Amino acid sequence: MYCDFWNLTQAPFNQRLDLEYFFESEIHEEALARLLYIADEQKKCGIFSGPAGTGKTLTLKVFEQLLKRTPHQSELIDLIGLGEEEFIWQVCASLRLGPSFETKLPQLWRQLTDYLNGLQLTQGRQILLLDHVDQARTECIPALERLLHVGNQQFPSLSLVLALDKMNLSQADTLSRISDLSIELDRFEQETTESYITSRLSWSGCQTDLFSAAAYQEIQSVSQGIPEKINQICDLALLAGFEQSLSTIDADVVNRVCHEIRGMPVSRNRISEAIQRV
């Protein structure tokens, strides 16, 4: 909607999990290095944590692409809301073991056990990237431990990467016991936030700095360095700037946008009018 006004080739702050929008900060670079260490050194399990919105899912997708250049096989599975039977079915389906919708849990475990035993005999490597582990049902956590046991009896054939926002108390003992390495995505510092914003603008064809120094500081303060929140603020700020025909986005625009996000629109903020005209 505002791309022509700002001379952009595309909206720079959309929330799509698109690999071309991956920003490899020092934090993300370190996370990828640790993930590759798990794969290359045949570690059984890594806990990949960080506040919601820091980019864990997109980092897993990038890691999955990197693994395609290696002998390791990998699958990415989202565990939101899954119980043990649904989880094991998803694993079997991702590994192309041919489970039917009627296959019961004991048969699913048998299919998976046979596959992992065969993998150990051939000294193959399988890496499962499991997202939103903290939002799976509690019964999935013992299943993770069982998976690691089955997949590493004769040869270290199976590695798990468990991504979560925070470790629940009910999960803490088991996850701490099975983890070989902790990987954390932290919030951006001020300098990284500015670099992130300018990079996304540059990827969208922007040749000038659209945000003032004070605007950057306000974005950092409100977003607390969370990329997902930064995207939301910057997207609405560009919309507000378009509606008001501004040449740059200042701290006042950012502040008013943040009121909109919190559901507290102020009288000078006319973002809603711009949206209604679309």
From TrEMBL:
Residue ranges occupied by any ORC1/DEAH AAA+ ATPase domain in the UniProt entry: 41-162
Molecular function terms, GO-annotated: ATP hydrolysis activity
InterPro entries cross-referenced by the UniProt entry: AAA_22 (IPR049945), ExeA_AAA_ATPase_DNA-bind (IPR052026), P-loop_NTPase (IPR027417)
Name of the protein in question: ORC1/DEAH AAA+ ATPase domain-containing protein
